[in-house]
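Example 4.3 (complexes with small molecules)
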Amino acid sequence: MADSTAAAAARGLTTTEAAFIEAAQHAGRLYIHQPYELYSEQNHEAWQRLFARMQPQWRRYANPQFLKGIDSLCFDASQVPRLEDVNRFLAPLTGFRAKAVSGYVPAFDFFDCLSKREFPTTITIRRADRLDYLPEPDIFHDIAGHVPMHTDPKFADALVRFGNCAHTAARMAADAPDPEEKQRRLTSMIKALARFFWFTVEFGLMQTPDGVRAYGSGLLSSYGELEHALTAPAVQRYPLQMEWVVNQGFDYHHYQPLLFIIDGFDHLFALVDELERRLAAGALMYVAPGAPDINDADASSFLRAE
Ligand SMILES: [Fe+2]
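Answer. The structure with fe (ii) ion bound is encoded below.
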């Protein structure tokens, strides 16, 4: 028993190795607390190294609102952040809060959380000896990549509107004449929503007075891809066009070869509005097939919402 306790402690809250997370998932608990005492020395070391090496990259390639956000969150560079500390600084700015989760949040529930200004947040962290290898989200991606953007009121308002889009999609699917057609419409609308989210919130670029900068969290939490996204000649960067984005598949196993640029967060808000209008008009029920795949958990989360 002492041995297994010691082994669990050594694994700490490492992504895919955390006994605490396995137990929560096994018990069906999605919303959890952050058991801060379980983070191991290696977990804190991973945070420290990830945070330190991003500093020069952020200064060169991140948008100004992100840099301001990082400052206002007062992170301790040497330790995994406590969500309650993050929220103490974040909530007064925009009402957003990081909310600990044990794993994947089905699409509707994820967007619905955003509409309530709650951000489902992974609490595990990648291994200290594999800083670049990251098939799953971790706390560095969620807290250092996403949350600084949530300090900006305009960005935060745009994020809330994704929740409205999800409700509209659920309503539009409910009008289908039969269950098969309902499933088909839903798959198309969730695909459109997921693609738009991917090419904006996760991998978006924006114009700033100093040139093009990143605001997408997938870029802002990736040491290698941030620079690549903004400087590699092979990356195609185009002004965001709604008709293109909702029909464009993507592959999350590789650096993104195609990225879209917005003018700012007023523009982003207007685009999410436009997305909702198209959903409500029934114009996104036949988007192009392709990635991402919409799994059963995602589809049924929308069906439950009707
Ligand atoms: Fe993300």
